[in-house]
Structure formats: structure tokens, C-alpha cells
What does this fold into?
Amino acid sequence: MLKEFKEFISKGNVVDLAVGVIVGSAFGKIVSSLVNDILMPVIGVIIGGVDFSDLSIKVGGAKIAYGMFIQNIIDFLIIAFCVFLFVKTVNKLSNMTHKKEEEKEQIVTETELDVLKEIREELKKKTKTTKKTVSKKKKD
It folds into this structure.
């Protein structure tokens, strides 16, 4: 069991996943700070100074903090949008790289094709020349 655990941990995918989780966590903190410290105060001013985090209703002895719920929904939407933009940018860069590689391959293929055509033409010329030489020798 210990050997299997070692194999599982040493696989590259686990390390990649761990790095992704750590970077994602740090990115989440940055976006949360952006939302809480920059965007929400501006939104609060725009809608008349309302601070969502303080909004709540008392029902019996319970306090329902619906303002925090609204805050968390806004956090989620902003984080989801930031991740969307990030993934879109990475995909665009990846596609650009793939297109450049495909263009290079196409150029190489076209160049190879041109060289092969030239070789074919030279062989045709030599074949014609050889046939003429053989015909002359047969006549002699």
C-alpha cells in the first residue's frame, strides 16, 4: 500500500494538480481583494452607499445575513469572469502557437514538394536524353 501511495504521489499529474490548487487559491485571494476592497465600495457608492455585507434580517433569534450571500454571489461572478478571461487568453495564445507551427510545417512541406518536383523534372530530362542517346547508338 505504501508503494502504491509513493507511485501515486510521484506521478506528474498529482504535482500539476497541487500547483494548480495553490495558484488557484492565491488567485482567489487576489480576486476576493479586488471585489471586497475595490469593486464593492464603488458599487456601494453607485447604489447609494449600501454595504452589502451588513445587510441582514432577524427572524426570531436567528440573523440571516443575506448581504453576505449577495457579496459571495458577486465574488463568484467576478472570479468566474476572471477565470473565463484567463482561459480564453491562454487558449488564444495556444492556438496562435499551433497555427505558427502548422504554417511552418506547411512551408516545409511546400518546399519539399517543390524540390521533389524539380527532381522529377530533372529525371524526365535525363530520361529523354538517355532515350535519344540510346536511339542514336542503335541507328549507328
Q: What stands out?
A: The chain has one domain: 2-135.
